[in-house]
Amino acid sequence: MPEARRRGQTGVVLRPAYPAHTQFADGWLPCTRDPGGALAMGMGHVLLSEFFRDRHVPYFTGYVQLYVIARMLVNAPHWQFLAEPCVAFRADNDSFRALGQFGRLKMDVCGYETIVGDVFGRDSRLYHEAMAEIARTHARHHIVTAKRANAPLSFVRQALALCVRHYGRYPGFWLHTFPVLIMPRPIMLFARRCYQKRRR
What we know:
Elements: H1 2-6, E1 12-14, E2 27-29, H2 36-53, H3 58-75, H4 100-120, H5 125-148, H6 153-167, H7 171-182, H8 185-199
Parallel strand pairs: 1-2
């Protein structure tokens, strides 16, 4: 609490009795019983109302999406891609387009690394399994989307440096994502069309 006050934040203690740590707060609100549950529900309501329902805040949406995916990885650390449009990658309704092609890729690469590392620990087997799968599927998807939109050569250079730094140790990156990254756009589009025809 003292650190929060040094950063200019306001702190209020809600407790029936006057606890000792109230001296570090800006105020004390006495209550008849422990308000933990009601306070948590109220905070959740305010957060969802102000950042999700009433107005769209990209940072909040991204944070929630990334942590939901991390929770799914904890419960079942393997990925499955379903081809139906309703559950496929959300390329056409992406709320982070304003970041640009490389900014969007960087947000996911760095965001997933941070969250998966925090959830599993960077030395764990689950961390490396998740990172290898993200490199093979999710990062590749963003690269394909950018190249389909005729991304400039500078995107390829930046994406290559970023992906090698984060995924260079995983063979799946070199087998699945790296070829798409360095492949000329016309060849990539032709290969993609052939693959889609074959799947029908």
